[in-house]
Write a structure and sequence with these properties.
Layout lengths: L2 H30 L10 H12 L4 H12 L8 E8 L5 E8 L2 H14 L3 E2 L9 E10 L5 H12 L3 E5 L2 E6 L4 H10 L6 E8 L7 H15 L4 E6 L6
Antiparallel strand pairs: 1-2, 1-3, 2-8, 4-6, 4-7, 5-6
């Protein structure tokens, strides 16, 4: 008897988490579709749709988002914004948002940073520490998989492969992302995650209370409806 509610609560929490992921993915598809409704000629839309498929989003949900973004279902008033700031321990943060109310969004982001010992910076104060790159992460615990991924990735045009803790991160310029991803998939390697990201030039080691506060801040920001992505330069284990 006593286990019923906890199972139901877990299901409700999972449904809420899934709904939040879908909301962010729908937003990304909608914005991406503004520059073209055909994923074959719109790489950003293609990446967004791949992420949505990985999250098991229904096809009709994706199609509705594309129609809205391309203007087929009326105008869409979402804006893309990037906030730059510092978290606990001086950790650099890039916070990407999509919103129909920038005043609300900046207030929410500023409040989150201030509450966790950080602050909002001016445009350009943090972004120079990051580069826009394709990143594909693979599990490489199987014997020989690390070398196979390295060989395949470099041959496909990747710039670097970083192996640590049973995972390999394949790094490439955004223009090579689709080709590198296709080559690795064709070789039988399915990425744990694959996206165009803002990757820091250097990672800063943190621990103890600073790490705990940063994780709390990231969770807080991720919980904001308008926030799409959070990038930072802390060396945080997954």
């Amino acid at each position: 008897m006593g286990r019923g509610p906890s199972i139901e609560n877990r299901k409700n929490a999972e449904d809420a988490r899934r709904g939040k992921i879908f909301t962010k993915l729908i937003r990304e598809i909608t914005i991406a579709a503004r520059t073209g409704a055909d994923p074959a000629s719109n790489s950003r839309l293609r990446v967004a749709m791949d992420k949505a498929l990985s999250a098991n989003m229904p096809k009709d949900t994706m199609e509705r988002a594309i129609r809205r973004g391309s203007g087929a279902d009326g105008a869409d008033d979402m804006q893309e914004l990037r906030y730059e700031g510092y978290g606990p321990g001086g950790i650099a943060l890039l916070i990407d948002a999509m919103t129909d109310n920038p005043v609300r969004t900046v207030a929410d982001v500023r409040h989150a940073l201030t509450k966790h010992g950080g602050n909002l910076g001016t445009s350009g104060s943090v972004a120079f520490q990051f580069k826009r790159l394709g990143e594909l992460v693979f599990e490489t615990t199987a014997a020989g998989s690390e070398d196979s991924i390295l060989e395949c990735a470099i041959e496909a045009g990747a710039d670097d492969v970083i192996a640590e803790d049973g995972r390999s991160s394949v790094i490439c310029v955004p223009e090579q992302f689709e080709a590198v991803k296709a080559a690795l998939k064709a070789a039988g390697f399915e990425p744990l995650r694959a996206d165009i990201v803002m990757r820091p030039d250097n990672r800063v080691a943190i621990s103890g209370e600073t790490e705990e506060t940063l994780r709390d801040l990231i969770d807080w920001l991720d919980g904001l409806d308008d926030v799409q992505e959070i990038y930072h330069n802390a060396a945080l284990p997954d």
